[in-house]
């Protein structure tokens, strides 16, 4: 019976590295949009989350599960508040949050990395 | 005998917990800039507390977005790299005359 239990990650989640990747993906993608177009933004939010997920897989963190959340909106003098709470292992799990906006569109991306025992 | 009931992510159960938390916190309220911080924190903490009481072997991520209704568009998308058989998510959209609330709950088994 295989009872091998892993408690510690050999390659823990590095927030700085992930944040750089997010900047490299999000900034050009948002700047490419000349104006807020709701149909394009529907597709853009889905595409961004898939692209970021694929980039996270390339980072080769061993035994990590990822949740990527992308919030895209029009800058219309509005107020928006985004909060999150997690129940997890503080020593292994972590998250990175990145917000970018230009005059027309804002984008908030959060990547959570959770260790799988 | 179905013993997956105690160890799987049940979307309906989580959806009900989420809706109750939203109703209890902002159900009868209008958008107020000063209170939005407290509201999002309260919603998220209430949901997390209820999820913990379910006593399932899960790690949870609860995220809440509250936005004032002013005509602007908002899109949310999420993608996950996990085990499809054991992990799950639930997103609830709620609105009243002055604001929108979008709450997402992700449950990942350990």
From TrEMBL, chain A:
Organism: Adineta ricciae (Rotifer)
Domain of life assignment: Eukaryota
Pfam families named in the record: Tctex-1
GO molecular function per UniProt: dynein intermediate chain binding
An annotated GO cellular component: cytoplasmic dynein complex
UniProt protein name: Dynein light chain
Gene Ontology annotations of biological process type: microtubule-based movement
Family: Belongs to the dynein light chain Tctex-type family.
Automatic annotation (TrEMBL), chain B:
Single GO BP term: microtubule-based movement
Lineage: Eukaryota, Metazoa, Spiralia, Gnathifera, Rotifera
Protein name: Dynein light chain Tctex-type 1
Subcellular location: Cytoplasm, Cytoskeleton
Pfam families documented for this protein: Tctex-1 (PF03645)
Sequence similarity: Belongs to the dynein light chain Tctex-type family.
InterPro entries: Tctex-1-like, Tctex-1-like_sf
Source taxon at top rank: Eukaryota
GO cellular component, as recorded: cytoplasm; cytoplasmic dynein complex; microtubule
Organism expressing this protein natively: Adineta ricciae (Rotifer)
Protein keywords: Cytoplasm, Cytoskeleton, Dynein, Microtubule, Motor protein
A GO MF term: dynein intermediate chain binding
